[in-house]
Amino acid sequence: MGKINVGLIFGSKSGEHDVSLKSAASVYRAMDKEKYNIYLIGITKEGRWAYCNCSPESMESGDWLDYEIKGAKINIIPSSGRRTGIELSDGSLLEIDVCLPVLHGPYGEDGSIQGLLEMAEIPYVGCKVLASSLAMDKAMFKKIMVFEGIPQVDYECTTKNEFERNKDAIVERIESNLTYPLFIKPANLGSSVGISKADTRDELIEGMEIAFSFDKKIVIEKGLDVREIEVAVLEDGDIKVSAPGEAISCADFYSYDAKYLAKESETIIPANVNPDQISIISDLAKKAFKAIDGNGISRIDFFIENETGNIYLNEINTMPGFTKSSMYPKLWEATGIAYTDLIDKLISVAMENHAKSSAYACC
Ligand SMILES: Nc1ncnc2c1ncn2[C@@H]1O[C@H](COP(=O)(O)OP(=O)(O)O)[C@@H](O)[C@H]1O
Ligand SMILES: [Mg+2]
After folding, report:
1. What angle do CA 295, 301, 304 make, to 5 degrees?
2. 191 Cα to the center of ligand 2, angstroms
3. Annotated catalytic sites, by residue?
4. Which of 19, 183, 219, 319 to mutate to test the pocket of ligand 1 (most atoms within 8 A of CB)?
5. Domain of 101?
6. What CATH code is carried by the domain that includes residue 19?
7. What is the pLDDT of residue 257?
């Protein structure tokens, strides 16, 4: 078999642009260049696509656009006799066997780019449109988890419209159904962007206003004193769940700064949890991944409440942080799959799944 043409897509309009650059640079460094032709496709913060030959260092530093070769776009309608692929600004075509969208947050992890790649019939790594969008939207995700009977912390949802029309009633509803401290989150974001913790009504209103500056829909949760336990899922026909890891934040909660800027936040792998807890978490992870109809990859995050030992599912990240030292790859490393092999596995699963689904489409 010849080399596989991989479109490594990074950046994007999401608030998690910089996190994507770090993940993608790390993936690019680790990928076997004998096995893959790697086409680097960056998306700027404004949403412009560029094909470039940047180094991983320039990706990480944000200087990758200096290495642009040509503008790029997905060619969703192949001209006759041509394969689909990524079309460049001069009309030439990069023939792509599989895309690896190392993108986090809106536009990357929410089903948008997945839909674009579906239209173009290009195989891609990870969850499809439905699973991506369900896992991205915290409000919709919680509804599915309720339906499946998967435990999660008590919550309320509201919209900007509702809040602007009837602020007092909304605040009263939240206060009568939940107790402080509260966590206020934009429904469609990640990396803790726009999330705040409130101990008082004033802080709640302020937190809601912050969250509404990111999204028109928000989620308010009862804040618990918790340990944060995460597992990695790898699906290749079977759903495999890794050993658990624990994320320990240096801050009051696992904020953006605590996740990416502070040195003191750490991960403990394997997490010090007992076999019963491992078994419950692993079963819930499989059930939740199935419930959203996941594919390929996800990191599933849980809370264990310190006071009660209760286990709650917090969220599914369908394209988790993917630097060599991120939780997802480290969890697989601890479970026996090295970083480079993990990337190979995800790519081969994506290509096999695509071949299978194309076979169905023909019948
Ligand atoms: N209900 C909660 N109780 C306690 N801590 C919480 C709660 N919800 C969120 N957090 C804290 O905020 C962080 C970010 O919340 P999360 O829902 O994971 O959002 P994101 O999708 O941005 O990662 C969590 O890792 C945790 O530290
Ligand atoms: Mg999280």
Report:
1. 145
2. 6
3. 16, 191, 326
4. 183
5. 4-124
6. 3.40.50.20
7. 76
